[in-house]
C-alpha cells in the first residue's frame, strides 16, 4: 500500500494501530509464536490456552476433542484499537471472536432509525459472532455467510482470539 495514496486521517489510523500493536506485543505475535513448535507441544499449549474459551460457546461445549483441537489450531490473535468496528449491521459475519482483554459493545437498531434499543457489553472471557458457527458446521452448501443484525465495536483496546469464516 502506498501511503501517499491514503488521506491523512487514514494514515493516522494506520500509524496508531501499528504503534498500539507494537506496544502491546513488544514486536512479537501472540499465539502465532507457537506455530514453529512440534505438533504435540503446539497442540497441548493451544488446548491449555483455548479450550476454556471455546467451551463457553454453548454448542461448542458438546464437541469432541478432535473438533476442539482443530478449532484451537486455527485460532489467531488480533489486537483492536479503541472505537474500532468489528462488524457493522448488514455486513457478513466473518469472525467468531473470543475476548482476552478489553471491552466491546454490541448494539442493534430499530428499523434502521439509528436509535439503539438493545446494547450488550462484552468483557474478557466473553465471545461474539456465534451466528457464524452453525454456518461453518453445516455442509456449506450456501456460500453466503450470516448477516449481522448488530453493530459490534470496541470500547477499549481489545486483544482477542478469532476464528474466521474461512477457518470454519
Detail the topology: elements first, then pairings.
Layout: H1 8-25, H2 39-55, H3 65-74, E1 76-80, E2 85-87, E3 95-101, E4 104-109, E5 116-122, E6 127-128, H4 132-137, E7 151-154, E8 158-164
Antiparallel strand pairs: 1-8, 2-7, 3-6, 3-8, 4-5, 4-7
In short:
The protein is of the alpha+beta class.
Query: What fraction strand?
Result: 15-25%
Distance between the ends? 29 Å
Report the biggest beta sheet as strand number plus sense, adding barrel if it closes: 4 strands, antiparallel
Tell me how many strands there are: 8
Number of helices: 4
Structural class: alpha+beta
Task: From the alpha carbons, calculate the radius of gyration and give it in angstroms.
Answer: 17 Å
Judging from the principal axes of the Cα atoms, what is the shape? globular
What quaternary form is this? single chain
Helix content: 25-40%
Overall pLDDT metric: 80
- Lateral strand order in the biggest sheet: 1-8-3-6
Unreliably modeled segments: none
* SSE run: HHHEEEEEEHEE
Model description:
The protein is an alpha+beta fold and 168 residues long. It has helices at 8-25, 39-55, 65-74, 132-137, and strands at 76-80, 85-87, 95-101, 104-109, 116-122, 127-128, 151-154, 158-164. Strands 1-8-3-6 form a 4-stranded antiparallel sheet. The chain has a 4-stranded antiparallel sheet with strand order 2-7-4-5, with no helix packed on it. Helix 2 crosses helix 3. The longest helix has 18 residues, at 8-25. The two termini are 29 Å apart.
Amino acid at each position: 500500500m502506498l501511503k501517499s495514496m491514503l488521506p491523512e486521517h487514514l494514515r493516522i489510523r494506520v500509524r496508531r494501530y501499528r504503534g498500539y500493536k507494537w506496544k502491546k506485543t513488544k514486536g512479537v505475535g501472540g499465539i502465532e509464536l507457537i506455530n514453529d513448535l512440534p505438533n504435540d507441544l503446539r497442540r497441548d499449549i493451544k488446548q491449555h490456552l483455548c479450550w476454556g474459551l471455546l467451551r463457553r460457546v454453548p454448542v461448542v461445549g458438546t464437541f469432541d476433542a478432535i473438533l476442539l483441537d482443530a478449532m484451537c489450531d486455527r485460532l489467531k490473535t488480533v489486537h483492536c484499537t479503541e472505537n474500532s468496528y468489528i462488524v457493522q449491521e448488514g455486513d457478513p459475519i466473518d469472525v467468531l471472536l473470543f475476548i482476552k482483554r478489553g471491552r466491546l459493545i454490541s448494539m442493534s437498531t430499530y428499523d434502521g432509525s439509528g436509535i439503539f434499543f438493545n446494547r450488550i457489553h462484552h468483557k474478557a472471557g466473553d465471545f461474539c459472532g456465534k451466528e457464524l458457527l452453525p454456518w461453518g458446521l453445516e455442509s456449506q452448501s450456501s456460500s453466503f455467510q450470516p448477516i449481522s443484525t448488530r453493530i459490534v465495536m470496541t470500547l477499549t483496546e481489545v486483544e482477542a482470539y478469532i476464528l474466521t469464516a474461512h477457518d470454519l
